[in-house]
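User: Predict the structure for this protein chain, please.
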Amino acid sequence: MSVEILYPLVTEAIRRAETFRDLGNPGARDAHLEVSLLEEKIAESLPVSDPEGALARRGAVRAALAAGDLTRAGRLTARFLEERDANSPDG
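Assistant: Here is the predicted structure, written as structure tokens:
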């Protein structure tokens, strides 16, 4: 799936997650997990040196944390840190 398709999907998922969170809706956890999964797909499509790629990596981890999925957040963090150019000035 291209990033052009993923961007509106993640935007809608973020809105839904924030709305559910603000309303105290129990669906917030699943909505944040959906954001994390979509951000991960964007991160897989763009290098960390691309500002949007770096943002997607941070978004995937933050959304996993918001979903309460510490295991996923840790796994994503470890994976993203291992990327070849993770320590570049742009990373």
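The mean pLDDT is 92.
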